Amino acid sequence: MAAPKNEAAWLTQANSPLQVSEAPMPTAGAGEIVVKNSAVAINPLDCHMQDLGVFVQQWPAVFGCDVAGEVFEVGPDVDRFKKGDRVLGHTINLVTGRPQDGAYTHYTVVPANKAAILPDNISFTDGVVVPFALEAAVCALSLKVPGEAMPGVATPALGLPYPSLQELAPSAGNTLVVYGGSSSVGCMTTQIAAASGITVIAVTGERNMELSKRCGANQVFDRTDPELIDKVVDAVTATGGKFVGIFDAISTPDTYTNDLAIIAKLGGGHLACTHPPPAEAPSNVKAGMIFAVDDVAAPVWKDYVTPALQNGKLRCLPPAKIVGKGLESIDEALKMCKAGVSAMKLVVEL
Ligand SMILES: NC(=O)c1ccc[n+]([C@@H]2O[C@H](COP(=O)([O-])OP(=O)(O)OC[C@H]3O[C@@H](n4cnc5c(N)ncnc54)[C@H](OP(=O)(O)O)[C@@H]3O)[C@@H](O)[C@H]2O)c1
User: Quaternary form (predicted)?
Assistant: First the structure.
């Protein structure tokens, strides 16, 4: 049989279309698997990488963070996977800069501790919405000690428990506000927090309030409600639990204004952001920016993802919207992502 050939969607310079052409066939090193990708997903990060060349460490570049497909090769010390397994995985080109660690190619290197078996009843195009958002959620919730997201910008350290496969009885424990609950990372953070026994109060667009409830939010408020701040504060207070803080998936000046008003009324708390936090935060606000590549997520990948997908506790939300088939469709999907999406993850089949 002829050796398989690889191709990738390359970025040769900032602000230019991706170019599909030959790519070296990757091999799995220690702690790695090579996945033959059947589906990849698009993240806002990819749009910034394409437009501005930010985070590109090596030109030409292959980026993208989410893959689902079959294991093609297993690294020497990896025992959780075998060739042919159906998997989903989080690829880490963002950290390594290596083209073989980007998703937008047929064969990608994935760290084995950022991958999990995808149950047979879940399609690759559904499963691929999970990986990057899952890691972002765990980084937002479970880091115990602050690290560095960017030079001079600390990560949040909420120190919350990992999600559990058990049905946790509702308790007056921790309460978290998820601002932007219909976004990809908002849906996943709501799911993971709810599965950790945390009461989630979410903020979404009106038409996506039901989706946020399906993710496990206890109460959801319309982001355009003029009384949003007071309603969120009242809902948090009514839980009777400890207010942990806010995970702000959107992290814009407008959402920061609301975040700080909510936290002020609740007497202080964490503000976990997806972008650099507000410069002027009062001393009772512990603000930080998540960095969604961290080994804190390894136990969740290893012990939680597959059984939780199997028993329906972890759902592939927001739903996938399949933009097209083939590496050539990734450019179109990136354009759609730049135009903005609502409660969906853009996916390309390979
Ligand atoms: N630092 C990191 O490590 C890290 C990791 C992952 C993502 N991120 C960043 O996190 C952000 C979210 O990423 P994503 O993939 O989750 O985004 P996404 O799914 O593309 O976000 C789209 C959603 O944003 C919601 N939204 C927009 N403006 C809003 C507002 N003012 N209030 C509430 N919701 C609002 C929309 O809600 P409605 O349609 O319901 O109105 C929509 O569903 C991006 O900026 C991304 O770059 C950072």
Answer: Monomer.
Residue 172 — pLDDT band, cuts 50, 70, 90? Answer: low
Q: End-to-end CA distance of the chain: give it in Å, rounded.
A: 21
Contact 39, 348 (CB under 8 A): yes
Contact 139, 294 (CB under 8 A): yes
pTM score:
0.98
Task: Indicate the SS3 state at residue 322.
Answer: strand
User: Among the atoms of ligand 1, which is closest to the Cα of residue 273?
Assistant: 1
Band (pLDDT 50/70/90 cuts) for residue 320 is very high
Cα(56) to ligand 1 centroid in Å equals 22
- Output the ligand 1 site: residues, CB below 6 A: 43-45, 136, 180, 182-186, 203-205, 208, 223, 249-250, 254-255, 274, 289-292, 341-343
Which domains does the chain possess?
Answer: 6-129+319-349 (3.90.180.10), 134-289 (3.40.50.720)
User: What's the angle, vertex CA 38, arms to CA 32 and CA 44, rounded to 5?
Assistant: 80
User: Is residue 332 within a helix (H) or strand (E), and if so which, with residue range?
Assistant: helix 330-339
Which ligand 1 atom sits closest to the C-alpha of 293? 3
Contact 320, 129 (CB under 8 A): yes
